[in-house]
Specification:
Elements: E1 4-17, E2 20-24, E3 26-28, E4 36-38, E5 41-43, H1 52-64, E6 70-77, H2 84-87, E7 91-101, E8 116-118, H3 134-149, H4 158-171, H5 191-200, H6 205-209, H7 230-244, H8 261-272, H9 278-288, E9 291-298, E10 306-311, H10 315-318
Parallel strand pairs: 1-7
Antiparallel strand pairs: 1-2, 1-5, 2-8, 3-4, 6-7, 9-10
Length: about 325
């Protein structure tokens, strides 16, 4: 039987809440107690959808009752064996991923509540707001070090050198002859490179489910599992958003109309996974002229009232790349 081809549309819908950055999930029914997490997705039907963008918005609204605002295309995912049907040669699914930024709407009743999940449930090693994640230092780095060292002819072979170079690039550390490496520099944008390296090393459950590895490399869970390659699509979206924070004012798509500078800083820290220096951040925001005071104050700070600001939209006409080139607090 000749394999068919289907074009799928996948949406990474991102919002922020008090406990961190959120991604919208639709449960995929399974026999297990906890359904496998999936991104909103559906096939593109040219007879029904005039454009890919319209098709995506229709699928998200049908599955979640949420109307999307800011949407941008991420990447086209077309690797062989992406789905179980494709792995059997029955269907090859080419998916076009999209990133959408929204503010979480308040449900009118409990039946309308959407399934928002903190994206660090899927990538716990990406959250550095409280320092180096324990999972990374105690579980993932030792396992990855062993995987790099076990490459055929690691000292001189091409495979060993490629593993080592990718490991250095993705995790910002060199490999000592023995023991666990220490991270010298962490690039928060390399989310996808880290996930793909962990997949090849068999350190995420999807690698075992897909048959890419025969046995589980580690016993502890390295993040919540997602359907097919949805976690790879999510990694691509997180990397894109973290990069865009530095050259486009996308963070304001996730903020309320009026906000304090503390709320803005907290949101940036949530998305980047890094703490930033308070005084430096405020100087950066003021020098970038991204916000303007509203003249009002917020009394919901738990202390002294704080000045409220709003996004200064004129900046979009004044500068070609008005972003926040943030640095970590140390």
């Amino acid at each position: 039987m000749k394999a068919g081809l289907e074009i799928g549309l996948h949406a990474v819908v991102v919002a922020v809440a008090e406990d961190g950055p959120q991604v919208l999930i639709v449960p995929e029914p399974q026999t297990s107690a906890e359904p496998i997490a999936a991104l909103p997705f559906g096939p593109f039907d040219p007879a029904k959808h005039r454009t890919l963008d319209i098709g995506l918005r229709n699928w998200v609204e049908e599955q979640t009752r949420l109307s999307l605002g800011h949407v941008e295309q991420l990447y086209t995912f077309g690797d062989q064996g992406r789905t179980r049907a494709a792995a059997k040669g029955e269907l090859n699914l080419v998916s076009i991923g999209y990133l959408a930024l929204v503010r979480i709407p308040a449900p009118k009743n409990t039946s309308e509540a959407l399934n928002w999940q903190n994206w660090y449930r899927f990538f716990p090693w990406e959250d550095w707001r409280s320092g180096t994640p324990i999972m990374l230092s105690e579980v993932l780095l030792p396992a990855l070090s062993d995987w790099v060292r076990q490459a055929p002819d690691q000292a001189s072979g091409a495979d060993g050198l490629e593993r080592l170079a990718r490991f250095r690039l993705a995790f910002g550390c060199d490999l000592p002859k023995t023991g666990t490496p220490s991270i010298n520099s962490w690039d928060e944008e390399r989310v996808l490179e880290r996930y793909e390296l962990m997949y090849e090393a068999g350190l995420v459950e999807e690698a075992f489910v897909d048959g890419a590895v025969k046995t589980r490399t580690i016993e502890s869970s390295s993040g919540r599992v997602m359907l097919h390659d949805h976690r790879r699509i999510l990694a691509t979206a997180i990397a894109r958003l973290r990069a865009k924070l530095k050259y486009r004012p996308v963070v304001f798509e996730l903020m309320p109309n009026d906000f304090t500078l503390t709320e803005l800083q907290t949101t940036v820290e949530m998305l980047s996974g890094r703490k930033v220096h308070k005084q430096n951040f405020r100087r950066l925001v003021e020098s970038a002229e991204l916000v303007e005071p509203t003249g009002a104050q917020s009394s919901q700070t738990g202390g002294r009232p704080a000045a409220l600001y709003r996004f200064r939209r004129k900046i979009l006409r004044e500068r070609p790349a008005p972003g926040l080139r943030i640095g970590s607090s140390g």
